[in-house]
Amino acid sequence: MAKSRPGLSSVDNALQLVRLLAQHRALRLSEVSDLLGVAPSTAHRLLNSLRAQGFAEQETRNGPYRPGPVLREVGLASAGMDVRQVVRPALERLSARTGETVSLGVLEGRNIRFVDGIEGTQTVRVGNRTGVLIPAHCTAAGKAIMAVLSEVEFERRFAGRGLERRTPESISAWPELTRELTAIRKAGFAMNVEEGEKGVSAVGAAVCDVVGAPVASINVVLPSTRMPTKRVGRELAGMVLDAVADASAALREITR
Fold first, then answer.
1. Is-contact 35 1, C-beta < 8 A?
2. Does 207 lie in the same domain as 168?
3. Where are the transmembrane segments (predicted)?
C-alpha cells in the first residue's frame, strides 16, 4: 500500500497516483485517499488534474477512475509500439478485402485526425486520408469513437460546443447527433454519407483497449456512388468490425 509521507509535494502525490492507476486499473476516490494517505478533497483535486491532462478518466461522475489515454499510450510505448503499428495488419487485411481506401483515425480534441491509411485499388477512389483533420461529428471515424466515450470524457470534450456544418448533410443539431450516437452504440458501427465532404462516404467502428475505452477507429472510405444504400454500408460494416476485432485483440495482447 502506497502511503503518502509527510512533506511530499503535490507533484510527488500525483506521480504516486499515476503509478497506482497503472497498477490497479480502477480506483474510487475513497481508495485513492486511503492509498495516498491524503484527505478526500486532496485526492479529488489530484484526480481532476490527471483527468484534465489525459492521465485518468472516469466513465460516470460517481464511478471509478481508470488510466486515461496518455497512460495507455505510455503502455504501448513501453512495448516499443504505437497504435498505428498494432492496427496496421488489420488495416492491410481490410484493404485487401474491400479494395477501398481504409484509414485509422484518432480523436484530437473535438476533431478526428487520420494517422494511417492505405489507398484503394479502384480506378475511382478516395485518396489516402493520412494527416487530414476534420470535426469528429462529420465523420464515421469520429462518430464511432464519440458513441463509446465515457460520459465524463464526452462532456469534457463536447459539452456546450456548437456543431460545424461542412456540407448540407452534416449533423448540426445536438438532438439529432444524440439520436445518431445512440443508434451507433447499438449497431457497433457508424456510417457517414457526405457529412464531411460531398461525394465521399464511409463506414467506421471504434478500436477499444483492455478496459473498453476507445483509442482509435478503423474506417472504409469510398465514393458515395459505391455506397448508394444503407444495405451496402452494412455489408462493409461487417468487414470493418472483423478488422476492429483483430485490432482490439492485438491491442489487448500488447497492453495487458
1. yes
2. yes
3. none
Residue 105, domain extent: 81-255
Which residue type sits at 205? A
> What's the structural domain count of the chain?
2
- Assigned C-alpha cell, 95: 484493404
Q: Are 86 and 182 a contacting pair, CB within 8 Å?
A: no
> Residue 178 burial (CB < 10 Å; 0-12/13-18/19+)?
exposed
Task: Please count the residues of the chain.
Answer: 256
| Whole-number pLDDT of residue 73 | 62
Indicate if 43 and 99 belong to the same structural domain: no
CATH number for the domain including 100? 3.30.450.40
Strands 65-67 and 190-193: unpaired
Span of 11-15, 55-59, 137-141, 199-203 with lowest mean pLDDT: 55-59
Q: What is the pLDDT of residues 17-63, one digit of tens each?
A: 888 887 777 889 999 888 888 899 999 999 988 888 777 888 777 78
DSSP H helices in the chain: 10-24, 29-36, 40-52, 69-78, 83-98, 140-146, 151-158, 174-187, 230-255
Identify how many contiguous H helices and E strands the chain contains and give both numbers. 9, 8
- Whether residues 53 and 102 share a domain: the answer is no
Q: What are 133's three cell numbers? A: 483533420
Q: What is the DSSP letter of 125?
A: -
Which region holds residue 188: left if phi is over 0, alpha if psi is between -120 and 50, else beta?
left
Other C-beta atoms closer than 10 Å to the C-beta of 124 total 9
